[in-house]
Amino acid sequence: MREVSEQIDLRGIPCPRNTAKALMFLEALDDDMISLIIIDDGEPLNNFLESLELETGYRIEAKEQQGNFWNLYILKEGP
């Protein structure tokens, strides 16, 4: 996997604010960048993943559970 370009830590931020912040963060990235999103397990993770499925141009490269949160490595795909 390529190097992470940007990251955002959303632990402790309640739904749906965490999903909105994550999607705005991803939108601001340049194409072909890998980002790291750190998000709480459970509802926050599930809501974000459901929302990401509705978006086009993003692909989850890797997921790592770290106790009660997840590291999500997401590629913003270019045209």
Label this structure with key terms:
79 residues; alpha+beta; Translation Initiation Factor IF3; 4-stranded mixed sheet; 2 helices; 4 strands; 37% strand
Number of domains: 1
The CATH architecture category equals 2-Layer Sandwich
Number of strands: 4
Percent in helix: 25-40%
Task: Tell me the fraction of residues in β-strands, as a range.
Answer: 35-45%
- Summarize the biggest pleated sheet: 4 strands, mixed
CATH fold name, please? Translation Initiation Factor IF3
Structural class based on helices, strands and sheet pairing: alpha+beta
**CA(first)-CA(last) distance:** 20 Å
Low-pLDDT stretches are: none
CATH class label: Alpha Beta
Mean pLDDT: 95
Using only C-alpha atoms, the radius of gyration works out to 11 Å
For the largest beta sheet, what order do the strands appear in spatially? Answer: 1-2-4-3
* CATH homology-level superfamily: TusA-like domain
The geometry reads as globular
Count of helical stretches:
2
Order of helices and strands: EHEHEE
Walk me through what this model shows.
This protein has 79 residues and is α+β, with helices and mostly antiparallel strands. It has one domain (6-76): TusA-like domain (Translation Initiation Factor IF3), CATH 3.30.110.40. It has two helices and four strands; from the N terminus they run E-H-E-H-E-E. It has a four-stranded mixed beta sheet with strand order 1-2-4-3, with helices on one face. The chain is globular, with a radius of gyration of 11 Å.
Write the layout of secondary structure elements.
Blueprint: E1 6-9, H1 17-27, E2 33-40, H2 43-54, E3 58-66, E4 69-76
Parallel strand pairs: 1-2
Antiparallel strand pairs: 2-4, 3-4
Helix pairs in contact: 1-2
